[in-house]
Design a protein that fits this description.
By secondary structure, this protein is of the alpha/beta class. The protein has one domain: Alpha/Beta hydrolase fold, catalytic domain (Rossmann fold, 3-Layer(aba) Sandwich). α2 packs across α5.
Length: 278
Amino acid sequence: MLHKKIAIQTEGSLPDASLTLYLWDYSEEIPIRKRPLILILPGGGYHFLSDRESEPIALRFMAMGFHTAILRYSVAPARFPVSLKETALAVSYLYEHADEYQIDSDSIFVMGFSAGGHLAASYGAYWNSAFLSQESGCRTETLRPAGLLLCYPVISSDPAIRHEGSIRELLGDDWQDEELLRKVSIDKQVHPQMPPAFLWNTMQDDTVPPENSLVLVQAYMKQGIPIEYHLYEKGGHGLSLASALTDNMQHQCIEESCQNWIYLAEKWLNRSECKFLT
């Protein structure tokens, strides 16, 4: 395994913003050459970054045959669009170094949890915008994601269903600015060039209401974009793998009924762009 850390810095970035790679080594014994990569954006309400949604996820998907990477993006006091620019820089870096790292540049997926899910969905909405290309300094052709994997994501800025803490941390003093609120309400930014998505959450999530996911599903359906959605009956917010491996200190994050989400995600990935294991 190749394990490497790269600084990801733009105007407004926190000093520790970085990209950590978990890459399969090339082997003459294995016919697979270039592999798809999953870029992981942990949650934390744009206030911190959860370790429970970082390395355990990277290693599980790596065990399935994927390259993985974790973006430790800037959180508060950094404000929108700093973390979005960092995501663009990370994807562009992976694209530009695809030959060096044996990455299939047509199969770079972006996965996010909670607020990281909001960032992943935001990236899906803005990847081909002149705004993001100009802000990041990256060529649009290096920014295309193959798909999104969104785990109990923050999506909407609608006061009835939003996670206000995430919106406040993302926008700071401007968190009530109507134009900015619309920009970060991703259900209102869906367009035909958004990538396909895999999405899951739970009915019992009382932190980020599942309606966040439902409005995104509806927006995708209206545009005719492929989306797979799983709504589980049980389980609170922040489950990660929903197993003992990623349980929290309060022992609230083991939910057996949700543990199959990662296998459903694997099947979705292999139906999408990743044919190397089929």
